[in-house]
Amino acid sequence: MYDIAVVGGGLVGAAFALDLARQNTIVKIILIERNQPDFSHNEQGYDNKIYALSPKNYQHIQAMTSLLDEKRVGVIEAMDVRGNHGGKIEFDQHDCRGNYLAKIVEYRNLHQAVYRELSNHDNVEFKFTSLAKIENGAEQVSLYDTDGSKLDARWLIAADGANSFVRQQIGFDLKEIPYYQSGVVANFRCEHDHHNIARQWFLGEGILAYLPLPNQQISIVWSSNEPDALLQLSADELCSVVAEAGQYSLGKLELITSAQAFPLKLNLIEKFYSERVILIGDAAHTIHPLAGQGVNLGFGDAWELALLLAKNANNLSIAELARYNYNRLAEVRKMQMTCHMLHRLFHNRLPVVDKLRNLGLNLINQISPLKKVLINSAINY
Ligand SMILES: Cc1cc2nc3c(=O)[nH]c(=O)nc-3n(C[C@H](O)[C@H](O)[C@H](O)COP(=O)(O)OP(=O)(O)OC[C@H]3O[C@@H](n4cnc5c(N)ncnc54)[C@H](O)[C@@H]3O)c2cc1C
């Protein structure tokens, strides 16, 4: 019997397994992932799936592994956020406690570093398979895969993403709110230096972010109501549309990694555990990407749960689990609701709301203490 079965070896599941394996070298862990990762593309250009990691999470990753290729990591030293009618708010490292606001890391770079580090731990096994059934009991959980084999574990940690199979099998109570938008991502080389400034435009029809990568490159996340219209553009057309929407702030753009779209929704769950199954990452909660907080919240779950299980995988009490749930729910809801309200506010086309939100941005920009509170609560967890 395994102590811990982690289902889903994306960033959150793999990072959780690594954090736990480092802290407790006796606990027996199996990581079950449906797709065998292929790291052969890593040298071919930049991944269009990128993440803005908070300083705290980036430092946690650095403490767990030295295998991240830091030459490929971008840094955000300042932010420039614009409303659609003259509203503006600017942040830089003087507004926060650290010396940068976030690091921009490619999915592949981070995923590879965590997997390579995990393979150095004798107490971690990998299994690449799809699950067919789960039986959740008071003492253990049984996992059956599609070829009929079975394994048992004391705890199942589900990190299998926003459409979690485990969550559906167990029947967790979920409220799902679609945004009727997709996040369109792509990478570009820019004519002018970005100076490590992240830029964001609340456009009315959507939200566009330019995130700085090394070598005068950027990655964009465009939360759009009409993602297909963007995906159907030729490379040259997409460059023009993205440069124009970004007010040519970085001059002309050249596409270096093609566009891809991810549907956006808000998933709300109150209780992240049921008997022997605990949900983490996107399996437990999703969030609008306008503040780049999804994987940051997932890492928050991973670090706190790994600490708890490293101390006590055999006899974790219901009271400890309930406290874990309380802590994580408070953190997650605060961020989910902040992003949801911002999305609603900037999606509203009433002229009076339009004026107010742009005024609001300018007001926050002028009140230095409020700006500091906002930025520190966004990046410091
Ligand atoms: C456009 C966009 C931009 C974003 N930008 C940011 C950002 O800048 N910063 C940030 O913090 N977050 C960002 N996010 C959010 C971030 O992508 C997610 O929060 C994060 O990927 C969640 O990681 P995860 O490991 O929980 O889930 P996933 O990344 O979905 O991984 C789930 C894993 O489980 C596996 N799996 C699924 N089903 C099974 C099964 N039945 N059996 C076994 N394995 C299974 C999958 O193959 C996958 O490997 C963004 C999201 C979008 C859509």
Sum this structure up briefly.
35% of the residues lie in helices and 31% in strands.
Give the topology.
Blueprint: E1 2-7, H1 11-23, E2 29-33, E3 50-53, H2 55-64, E4 74-76, E5 78-82, E6 88-92, E7 102-106, H3 107-118, E8 124-128, E9 131-136, E10 141-145, E11 150-158, H4 165-170, E12 175-190, E13 197-202, E14 206-213, E15 217-224, H5 227-231, H6 235-245, E16 253-268, E17 273-274, E18 277-279, H7 294-312, H8 318-347, H9 351-366, H10 368-379
Parallel strand pairs: 1-2, 1-11, 2-8, 5-13, 11-18
Antiparallel strand pairs: 3-7, 4-7, 5-6, 9-10, 10-11, 12-15, 12-16, 13-14, 14-15, 17-18
The protein binds flavin-adenine dinucleotide (FAD).
Care to describe what's here?
- This protein has 381 residues and is α/β, with parallel strands linked by helices.
- The chain has a domain at 2-38 and 107-177 and 266-344: FAD/NAD(P)-binding domain (3-Layer(bba) Sandwich).
- The chain is 35% helix and 31% strand.
- Strands 1, 2, 8, 9, 10, 11, 17 and 18 form an eight-stranded mixed sheet that branches. Strands 6-5-13-14-15-12-16 form a seven-stranded mixed sheet. Strands 3-7-4 form a three-stranded antiparallel sheet.
- Helix 1 packs parallel to helix 3 (107-118) and helix 1 runs parallel beside helix 7.
- It is globular, with a radius of gyration of 21 Å.
- The two termini are 35 Å apart.
- The mean pLDDT is 90.
- It binds flavin-adenine dinucleotide.
- Flavin-adenine dinucleotide (FAD) binds next to helix 1, strand 2, strand 3, strand 12 and helix 7.
